[in-house]
């Protein structure tokens, strides 16, 4: 049994999609990051970086309980555990890692900053808004070009790189529909997969989360996510 600690956020959705695609036995342990669940001693014992998701695998290949955080590492662990969604051919495998790393180091952080300055920050910072909107456009262009040349991010096989990317592109698929036709084609194919359609709903039933952070995002939420509690010694 694998426990997924997380809520309705893009990073937890990556892992829910993978667990469903791989038909693993799993359960969700809901972590409400707007209420500060990620800052409790119990959660920090799992992930000292106070970020969701975390998985706890009671049946790891080494035997027994295994805790892992960082979605790129979790996706690779699950793919290797099951032998699925990671190409066998060494160069195809490396290309899959390349797009996975591109999601982890480029798309994830930059889309995150764009959402922060566009939706969550209390004051309006024109420079930051422009900077991150332009960077999101540039990254979208790179992904669109890749998907013009290949069916899936890794090439001709659906892999964990696609699972990592979809949750971050969902909002773009709606807000920028028609601007990036190859991303649109890929997004439609992704959402037709039952595991993807179900995985992106992870935690929604329990959520008090403000999807997209557009309305009702309060100073209390800001204090939890970017205030002093984040910097308290642990
Ligand atoms: N690089 C990390 C990012 C994880 C992350 O940013 N998680 C957010 C939700 S999407 C979180 O739990 N934030 C809580 C906090 O910062 O206190 C990963 O890929 O696992």
Key attributes of the depicted protein:
234 residues, alpha+beta, Glutaredoxin, Glutathione S-transferase Yfyf (Class Pi), Chain A, domain 2, four-stranded mixed sheet, 4 strands, 54% helix, globular, binds glutathione
Q: What report would you give on this structure?
A:
The protein has helices spanning 10-21, 41-46, 71-82, 90-120, 126-149, 160-175, 181-191, 194-199, 219-226; strands spanning 2-6, 26-30, 54-57, 66-69. A four-stranded mixed β-sheet has the order 2-1-3-4, covered by helices on one side. It has 234 residues and is α+β, with helices and mostly antiparallel strands. It folds into two domains: 2-84 and 198-231, Glutaredoxin; 90-194, Up-down Bundle (Glutathione S-transferase Yfyf (Class Pi), Chain A, domain 2). It starts with a strand and ends in an 8-residue tail after the last helix. It contains nine helices and four strands.
| Secondary-structure element series | EHEHEEHHHHHHH
Could you tell me the strand content as a percent range? 5-15%
Whole-number tally of structural domains? 2
State the end-to-end distance: 29 Å
What ions, cofactors and ligands are bound? glutathione
Main beta sheet: 4 strands, mixed
Quick description:
The chain is of the alpha+beta class. The protein has helices spanning 10-21, 41-46, 71-82, 90-120, 126-149, 160-175, 181-191, 194-199, 219-226; strands spanning 2-6, 26-30, 54-57, 66-69. 54% of the residues lie in helices and 8% in strands.
